[in-house]
Every structure is written in structure tokens, then in C-alpha cells.
Amino acid sequence: MAFWAVTGASGHIGANMVRLLLERGETARAVVHRNTAALDGLTVERVFADVRDGESLLSAFRGADIVVNLAARISIARAAGLEVNPVNVGGTENVVWACKQCGVPRLVHFSSIHAMAESPDGAATDENSPLVGDDRAAAYDRSKARGELLVLEAMRSGLDAVILAPTAVVGPYDYAPSHFGKVLLSLARSRKPMLVDGGFDWVDVRDVVDAAFRAATFSNLSSKYILGGHWHSVMDVSRMASALTGIPASSFAAPRHVARLCGSFTEAVCGLIGRQPLFTACAVDALGQHRRVSHQRASNELGYSPRPLEETLADTYHWFRENGFLPGGGEALRE
After folding, report:
1. Stretches in the chain below the pLDDT threshold 50
2. Positions marked active-site
3. What pTM, to 2 d.p., does this model score?
4. Contacts with 297 (C-beta within 8 Å, 6 or more apart), sequence order
5. Which domains does the chain have, with CATH numbers?
6. Which of these, 241, 245, 243, lies nearest to 333 by C-alpha position?
7. Residue by residue, what is the 3-state secondary structure of 268-309?
8. pLDDT digit string (tens) for 99-156?
């Protein structure tokens, strides 16, 4: 049994990670910034810290056998460097520093598929694919790539670390809710968001945290694993949601060039009224990327086997219903 410290413990992946550790009898310390709603009802030690302040992490990491770094700022805006860099880059640098200061035996750092550049020849994205280096790439993508480079540099100087790069994460315990969680809720409330001609590789959050546990405890020194799932189009997801909710699915998906113009307009309007848009031009671009993703290394070395998206969506809608995210308790959902 190990002693784990989890940054970003109140986020979507963090909430699932902490629950998995407790279910397996591990000792966990939840490192949180402000909101702790995702941890309500759990018997877990909580330490308030800010990854942007390295000194605050020392007490959070002291005595830990494994640190899981899930603290991140996600943005679907292309120009969001001031928002994402302090956490995704500066925060990662502080986590690495604090791990060294505290003598933490192993760091599990969460990167992202978005940190990786696509192969120009159309080959599947895998652990050998280069990181994003184009200044025209989205700020979030560049920030995650820079954070990963910091961990790689520390690994070369002796830090025992594992890097995980999940694709689009979906699943229960989505308290915020996440960006895609909001899309699922909109589909269940008959508010049809614009569907786009594109798709993504979707992965269940429970498969991701199970792989993280295995990587932390069983993987070789200084490994990296892509944690992918299954590619489905946005229309596929809409039809699956319709089958679960009984809400008719849209029969039209806008071409990406049209959706991109709409996304730019929506982002500008939402910026003026202080709301977060459901989609932006940057998000539309992402739906045309990483069509082919290989998780073969994780399957071979960790026994990783992602479940079907249909099962994930059913469990996610059930969780949303049980936790009051749908009007009237979500009785419109089909069992």
C-alpha cells in the first residue's frame, strides 16, 4: 500500500482517481485549490495548495510515495495563454521542484493528446509522435506540450516519472461539469448544440484512472502512455445520447469551415456577456485532429482495455440523473 498525493483532486479525473485509490485501500491526500464539492462524503485527507505557488506544495507532498499531477487549466479558446500557462507550465515546474525537494519516489504527470502533433503522413499518433511546437497551435495545446517537456527534462536528470496522455475524457463524477459534460446535458435537455462534421477519440475516465494506478505501481522507469479509447463522430455521439434520453437527434452536422465561423462569432459574443461558449473555432479544429490514436503500448504493458463509448455515456447520464444535473431528476432518461 502506497501513500498518494493527488493534485487537481476536485476535478473530473481527480474525483475518479481519489475514489479509485480509496476503493483499493490506498492512503490518499487530496490536494485542492478551492472547490471541494467533488470530494464531499469521502473520508480523505485534504490539503489546500496552489500549484502556482511551489512552497505551498511542500506540505502537500511531504511523505508521499506517489504524486499524481492532475492540476490543469483547460481552455477551448485559441488565445488563452495568460489563463493556461501559469497552471499548465508554471504549475508543472513547481510540482517537479516540490517532488525533488520532498524526495517523492514517483511522479505521475497527466499530459494530453492535445500536446502531441499529428503525423503529416496520416500515421496513428503514438508515444513517439512529436509534441506540438507550432506557435499557431491553441494555447492549451502548447501549454500542455511545454509542461510535458519540463517533466521529460526532469526525467533525464533522474526524476522517476510516468507521463500519461489521455484523449477526450468522458464519464461519471463530473461535478463541474466538464465542457463535454455540458454538451451531453444540453442534448438531454432538448437544447441541441450545433453538431459539427468531425469527431474525436473518446475515453472513459474510469479506464484512465485505472491505467494511472497501474502505471504508477507497475510500469517501468520513465515511461509514457497514450490512453485512448474509440473514435466516434459527433453525429455518432448525438445518436447514442438520443437512444439513452429519448430526445430526437439532429440529422444535420455543419461542415467544419462553417462551424468554425460560427464558433468565432459565438466566442466573441460570449466574451462580451461573460459566458463560456460550448464551442469555439479552436474546438472545431480539434474535431478534425487525431483521427487515429494508438494505445497499444498501454494495452501491452498495463493491460489497458478501454470500454465502449455507449457504456460510458449510459453511466454518465445515469450519474447526472442521480446527482440532480437534469431537470426533475432526469426521469426522461431511458433505463
Report:
1. 265, 269, 329-332, 334-335
2. 140
3. 0.91
4. 126, 127, 225, 226
5. 3-176+201-229+293-305 (3.40.50.720)
6. 245
7. HHHHHHCCCCCCCHHHHHHCCCCCCECCHHHHHHHCCCCCCH
8. 999 999 999 999 999 999 987 777 899 999 999 988 888 899 999 999 999 999 999 9
